[in-house]
Amino acid sequence: MKNEPWKSGPKELLLHGLEHLSLETEFDYRMGMIVIDNSVELMMKTYLGLPKRITKLNGVTRKLYDEATKSFPNLLDTMESFAKDKLIGIELGEIEWYHRIRNQLYHDGNGITVEKEKVIAYSSIAKILFENLFGEKIDARGKKYGIDDFLLAWADFNKLIVNQGPKIYRLKNFKELFQLSNKEELTLAEIIDFRNKLVHKPNEIDKVELNSKVQELIEFIELVKNRNK
Q: What are phi and psi for residue 142, nearest 5 degrees?
């Protein structure tokens, strides 16, 4: 794998955030959330600022880049407009939501805490974004989390959709695209509902249910792969 120098900064920040997460103290959860968010912001700024010969992005002028980097919402809007194919498995609204949590931690000072599960979920999103933008998986040492397993598998499922069929993301189109039975369609609907709850309310997820849904998603991915050979 190429060792492109431009990805070293975002990678180092993300790994630093993951190190904080692994220490499992309230302080480290706060710091992990802040650092992971910083890494997400740096990823997007770095990618948009790369030469066109590298990204193949059309229309990202210096003026547009300067405007995009003035605020986090501007940055997300620019990514959506010019690099949508790099956002497979990513919901920008969720990144913005986690960014607001980070801002509360950073600006409100002492007494503000963040649940471990939210830091894990945001770290999973950050890993997916890094791989999408720079073509490298983040292989962090330390503990493995079920949330991580599910969201990374979900990103793989989204990539499968793009690779094997038209860019269809709405549930109503999956039945025809993958020739699903009514039962399989219901299973996928439940997986999608679970994924949305996992990202927004990860602290309410039961560990047994999480492990079950990870297995369901992996089995569903295999079903789709076999059906589209």
A: 115, -155
